[in-house]
Amino acid sequence: MPSYLVTGANRGIGLGISKELLKSPENFVVAAVRNLNSESIKELQSQYSQDRFAVIKIDYSDYSSIEKAAEEAAKILPNGLDYLISNAGISLQESASFETIDLKVFEEELRVNTIAPVEVIRSFLPLVRKGTAKKIALVTTIISSLGLAPNMATLAISYGATKAALNMLARKWGAVLYQEGITTVTVHPGWVDTDLGSTIKDYWAQHKPDLKPITVQQSAEDTLRVIKDAKLEENIRLYNHTGAELPW
After folding, report:
1. Tens of pLDDT, residues 58-75
2. Res 198 pLDDT > 90
3. Which of 5, 42, 198, 210 is the most buried (most CB within 10 A)?
4. Which residues fall in a coiled-coil region (predicted)?
5. Is the pLDDT of residue 197 over 80?
6. Do the domain assignments include residue 101?
7. What pLDDT, on a 0 to 100 scale, did the predictor assign at position 209?
């Protein structure tokens, strides 16, 4: 039974990925969430038994919770973890200009989007090493692309910077993990119709009016396909949810 751990699994893309995975009776899913009592998680717990679905607490703004979550996951997954999907993240000032970015808020975005995933990977790495698939997936964004940055110069500046830093960490660490047979995947899940996605709708309406958001289900299906299809390679790539390669 393939095992998956999804962070930020109580809403948005993380919830969509968890629901999509649970459709297959072969999968065991661990939802890592900040709020154990969220209605979405309670609903999943009512639908799936403990031999298919488990929940652990993890808070990307509290690094100590990450190590505790890994210890709890180790008890749930004695045979290791096949897929670690780091999805949780925040974007707190999408419309801020370079002159108006709140630096304290920027620091918090860096803590959650860039630094916390480092702790997530190293805390769960022993479990991934024991797993069969040995895949680590980081949900990032097209806004993090340095190559495409001039085309989206004013969109979610601080958020894009934190994810660009995450991409660099992934590309460097991915080359190291490659030596162990561990696959690292970075994927843009698309512009998705979520609470977070809705905050940038005005930007796209002005700059690319023909672009429409995709559904959470479509994003989840596409993202999981990219993760599953990704091959072990030293020079990892940045993928769109469609499977197309994006420029770093």
Report:
1. 999 999 999 999 999 999
2. no
3. 5
4. none
5. no
6. yes
7. 72
158-187 burial by CB neighbour count: b if 16+ within 10 A, else e?
Answer: bbbbbbbebbebbbebbeebbeeebbbbbb
Specify whether the CB–CB gap between 236 and 33 falls below 8 A: no
| 151: pLDDT strictly greater than 70 | yes
Rounded average pLDDT over 28-56: 96
Tell me which residue of 4, 110, 9, 113 sits closest to 58, measured CA to CA.
9
Ordered alpha helix ranges (H), the chain? 12-22, 39-47, 63-76, 103-110, 116-130, 157-178, 195-198, 201-207, 216-229
Domain count, the chain: 1
* Helices 63-76 and 116-130, packing angle to 10 deg: 20
Task: Give the sign of the dihedral formed by CA 111, CA 113, CA 114, CA 116.
Answer: positive
Instruction: Give the CATH number for residue 188.
Output: 3.40.50.720
State the amino acid at position 163 in one-letter form.
K
Q: Does pTM surpass 0.90?
A: yes
Residue 50: Cβ within 10 Å count: 10
